[in-house]
Amino acid sequence: MKWLDDLTEDSTRAVARRSSRRSVLGRLAAVLVGASTVPLLPVERGAAAEAANSDAGSDTNPAKDPGDPTTCEYWRYCGIDGFLCTCCGGSLTTCPPGTEPAAVTWIGTCHNPGDDKDYILSYNDCCGKSSCGRCLCNRNEGDTPIYQPFLSNDVNWCVGSKADIAYHCTVSRIVGLPK
Ligand code: ABN
After folding, report:
1. Which atom of ligand 1 is nearest to the CA of 157?
2. Closest CA to 75 of 118, 51, 110, 116
3. How far is the CA of 26 from the centre of ligand 1 (A)?
4. Are 125 and 156 a contacting pair, CB within 8 Å?
5. Is 121:127 a contact under the CB 8 Å cutoff?
6. Are strands 81-83 and 136-138 parallel, antiparallel or unpaired?
7. Alpha carbon distance 15, 51 (integer Å)
8. Candidates 156, 169, 170, 171: which one to mutate for ligand 1, based on the most atoms within 8 Å of Cβ?
9. Whether 80 contacts 122, CB under 8 Å
10. Which residue puts its alpha carbon closest to atom 4 of ligand 1?
11. Among the listed residues 83, 94, 73, 81, the one whose alpha carbon sits nearest the alpha carbon of residue 173
């Protein structure tokens, strides 16, 4: 292992000869500052999407999020096929008590007339209770026939849920902001 010691020593001395302490510290600082911003990027976008979910509620910001989330015409429902959780004891983004969101979701893109932008939406089926039966909404924008199951919204996504296979209703969460 002496050869490894010699190699390490020689290369360390070579680096030391070529660089001043100030330049090493400068480069180290640049790497640390750069590295600290990298993990913030997706977190920041996730946080922005979270904010859009909460403060885009029509009761808090009607100009930017127009329409009634308890009706099928509301803009976020352009790709939905299911019972609206807003009519079933839940909200736009949260499942009703006694149910939980399926792990697998159907993703769509809908246009918000309030800010004239397109948003990526996740339609999460809420599982664990029998069908809610209220506010059926079947708009299907971007839907494909059932023979392409991962591009079809006509699927009970509760099949992948640990709670129960029983489908109750669907929530609609903003997961992606427009570029
Ligand atoms: N993804 C909503 C749904 C649930 C059960 C059956 C069809 C569609």
Report:
1. 1
2. 110
3. 57
4. yes
5. no
6. antiparallel
7. 48
8. 156
9. no
10. 156
11. 94
Residue 175 buriedness (CB in 10 A; 0-12 / 13-18 / 19+): middle
State how far the Cα of 83 lies from the Cα of 94, in Å rounded to an integer.
13
Catalytic residue annotation: 106, 125
pTM, entire model: 0.69
Low-confidence ranges of the chain (pLDDT < 50): 37-46, 55, 57-59
Give the binding-site residues of ligand 1, using a 6 Å CB cut-off: 81-82, 125, 153-157, 167, 170
Residue 49 identity: A
Q: Which pLDDT score, from 0 to 100, does residue 8 have? A: 75
Per-residue pLDDT of 42-53, as tens digits, reads: 444 445 556 667
170 Cα to the center of ligand 1, angstroms: 8
Q: What is the pLDDT of residue 106?
A: 83
pLDDT score for 39? 42
Taking residue 52's Cβ as centre, other Cβ atoms within 10 Å add up to: 19
pLDDT for position 61: 66
- Ligand 1 geometric centre to CA of 131 (Å): 10
